[in-house]
Amino acid sequence: MLRHRRMLAATMAFLISAVLSAPAALADPPAHAPAHGWRAKHDRYYVGYTGHHWNDDYGIREGRCDRDRVGTVLGAVVGGAVGSTVGSGDNRLIAILAGATIGAIIGHEIGQDMDRDDYACFGHSLELLDDGRRVRWDGVHAGMSYTLTPEGRFERDDHTCRHFTLVRESGGRQITRHGNACRFGDGEWRMIDA
């Protein structure tokens, strides 16, 4: 009886160690399922519209720019000089919309309330979204939101440019503007007159 118990205990110990030491069989998620964690493990970057690789999309590819995360990245930049210090070349953290003529091109009503977080959501969306895809983000004021839809690519003076539609909603009122922006350098987009 004692011998039988020892053999049973040894067999159980062997089976437990075999199960615990067996490598786990991991599989990619099916095509219809969201890839929770899969992308972070396998896709180390997001390829931008012009081929630049980005480490984060800030939710843009899912249709909603995460303004809080964008603000954290921009806030970490000493001095807040968005255009040149968010990064350069392969180290740039986020694409931006730059230039002093933003309000003049898309209209004062829309441009007056946009801040650097809005410019980053705007620029990074131009950088990452395919034509016809929309992205939405909340504005700086409660009840304000923006929806951007890039609509087509063209070239001007050796720069890649995109047509876009921007909609601002605030206080039950909606303003729609169409515009154009071109990419200057690594991830810096500037609005241009058509």
Brief digest:
Helices cover 31% and strands 26% of the residues. It has 194 residues and is an alpha+beta fold.
Question: Can you walk through the features of this model?
Answer:
There is one protein chain. By secondary structure, this protein is α+β, with helices and mostly antiparallel strands. The protein has one domain. The protein has seven helices and eight strands. The strands form two sheets. It has a six-stranded mixed β-sheet with strand order 3-8-7-6-5-4. The longest helix is centred in the first third of the chain and has 20 residues. It is elongated. About 12% of the residues have low confidence.
Helix/strand layout:
Elements: H1 2-21, H2 38-42, E1 46-47, E2 53-54, H3 67-75, H4 82-85, E3 96-98, H5 102-106, H6 108-111, H7 116-128, E4 135-138, E5 145-156, E6 159-170, E7 173-183, E8 188-192
Parallel strand pairs: 3-8
Antiparallel strand pairs: 1-2, 4-5, 5-6, 6-7, 7-8
Helix pairs in contact: 3-7
